[in-house]
């Protein structure tokens, strides 16, 4: 029996951050997910992924905040709290460090969410269906059999 690669344990913690970035996660909780002691977990995480667990969590939160700024018209403070951060001032500073501009400037650099047209998923899926599926739905069996030949 082959022992699992050590990074597999670290991936559990990384997946936990990806799934629950909104929650108050700390190194102890992440180390528990990886089944390692907090100090050993922090060292191994940094060695494997090139950044500390806290830096990775912060990056995930800021990336999600950027997506919300681009795709919604929600206030900056609400986005800050939605992604799991507790201080708008710290959020603005960290966001500026990562993206080179404040959240408000970032939003202004992207078209407003209201100017984009929302297309329901069902419409997109219907347009992506093969031609034979459309013919069968209309009941024209003669055309459907020709299309499938």
Description:
With 149 residues, the protein is mainly α. It folds into two domains: 6-113, Arc Repressor Mutant, subunit A, CATH 1.10.10; 119-149, no CATH class. The protein is 68% helix and 0% strand. The chain has ten helices and no strands. The protein has helices spanning 6-19, 27-34, 38-49, 53-71, 76-82, 88-99, 103-108, 121-128, 131-138, 141-148. α1 crosses α2, α2 (27-34) packs across α3 (38-49) and α9 runs antiparallel to α10 (141-148). The chain starts with 5 loop residues before the first helix and ends with a helix.
Shape: flat
Query: How many H/I helical runs?
Result: 10
The first-level CATH class name of the largest domain? Mainly Alpha
**Class computed from helices, strands and strand pairing:** mainly alpha
Q: Percent of residues in helical segments?
A: 55-70%
Strand content: under 5%
Biggest sheet: strands, sense, closure?
A: none
Number of domains: 2
How are helices and strands ordered from N to C? HHHHHHHHHH
Q: Can you tell me the CATH architecture of the largest domain? A: Orthogonal Bundle
CATH superfamily of the largest domain: Homeodomain-like
Task: Show unreliable segments.
Answer: none
Q: Determine the CATH topology of the largest domain.
A: Arc Repressor Mutant, subunit A
Radius of gyration (CA) equals 23 Å
């Amino acid at each position: 029996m082959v022992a699992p690669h050590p990074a597999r344990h670290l991936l559990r913690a990384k997946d936990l951050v990806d799934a629950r970035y909104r929650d108050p996660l700390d190194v102890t909780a992440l180390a528990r997910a990886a089944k390692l002691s907090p100090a050993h977990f922090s060292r191994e995480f940094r060695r494997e992924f090139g950044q500390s667990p806290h830096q990775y969590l912060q990056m995930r939160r800021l990336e999600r905040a950027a997506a919300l700024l681009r795709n919604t018209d929600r206030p900056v403070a609400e986005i800050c709290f939605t992604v799991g951060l507790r201080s708008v001032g710290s959020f603005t500073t960290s966001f500026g460090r990562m993206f080179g501009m404040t959240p408000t400037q970032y939003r202004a650099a992207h078209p407003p969410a209201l100017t984009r047209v929302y297309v329901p998923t069902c419409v997109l899926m219907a347009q992506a269906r093969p031609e034979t599926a459309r013919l069968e739905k209309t009941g024209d069996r003669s055309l459907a059999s020709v299309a499938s030949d």
